[in-house]
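Can anyone check this?
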Amino acid sequence: MIEGFWFPAGSAKKIVAALSVSEGRFKVIVKHDEYMEGQFDELIVSSRVGNIPRKIQLPDQSVFETTDNEAVDRLLQLSSAIVKRRGWAHILETRWSWIGVSLLAVLLFVFAGFRWGLPWASVSVAESIPEPIVQQLSQGSLSLLDDIMFKPSEISESEQKKIAQRIQNRLAHLDGSNFPIHFRKMGLPNAIALPSGDIVLTDRLVNIASDEELLSVVLHEISHVKQKHGLQQLVRSSVLSFAIALVVGDSSGVEELLVGLPVFLMQSQYSRSHESEADEYALEQMMAMDVDPIHFARIMEKMEGATQQAGAQGNEDHNESDTSVTRQKKLTDYISTHPVSAERIRKAETLSDTFNRRRVLSN
């Protein structure tokens, strides 16, 4: 005799009941009255999963439920009508050795997914995004940046056209690709390449860079566009953010993801491998264009110095409490993380030595 509850077909009403089995037949007793009897093999018994109550479906679609899992297991083993073994799920849940193995397997799977699976998936997804969506994404990001970060450029339109034309003339050999140049005012020297190929130069960058230095930065950003690094980073960050939201059940980070969307497109959160690829492309193109790679090293040093100066000034203004200013500082912190390392500068200087030795030999 197994104690439990009986649920009428299609109802959530719970009634105290009992189930008895004898000689291959079952009998359900509800409120001390016999409700149903029949052949035991007409019953459908749910598999055991930990200590979750077992459900036994009766021929009329009503359900008998019990928490006495051990009694149900004994009943299944001893019954001549049907014999069932405990499921693998119950074995895994009741043996610590299997729990440990399962946990390790899950951790390895998650690690492999983030270490190799996510990068591979981000490349595949980035490559498959239709061009109209890329254009729309880029335009929307630039509009948002204009609202919360950028100000109109203070460089005259005539000067903007001259600078853009000089850059475009140097880029004419790049397989006919189109890289429109835009100008904006911002506190830091920075170059921003949107996935569409549009490149934004800040006034501060233009003011501290020579034409060759400006060209080296643009070539670096063009590599990010060609390799779709921005889209890859966006896919990765989106997957991670939503995965965390699913696990913890908290969607509060979605708002910050949307605010941070254009920031990722501003090439400020690239991986070291992406930065290395972009550096190599820029330096190779400079060598091919007969431009000394030392200009890349020099502008990197200038940008690093300007970023450090802005960071020191930001610390002095730490007590600023205005919400809009706080948000702008937060985005500025993102941008200032664009890696500028001594190693990258040394690489450019080494190539510059090679460049100048070749020039001497050729003369």
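Reply from J.R.: I decoded it. Confidence is low (pLDDT under 50) at residues 80-86, 253-261, 265-269, 320-339.
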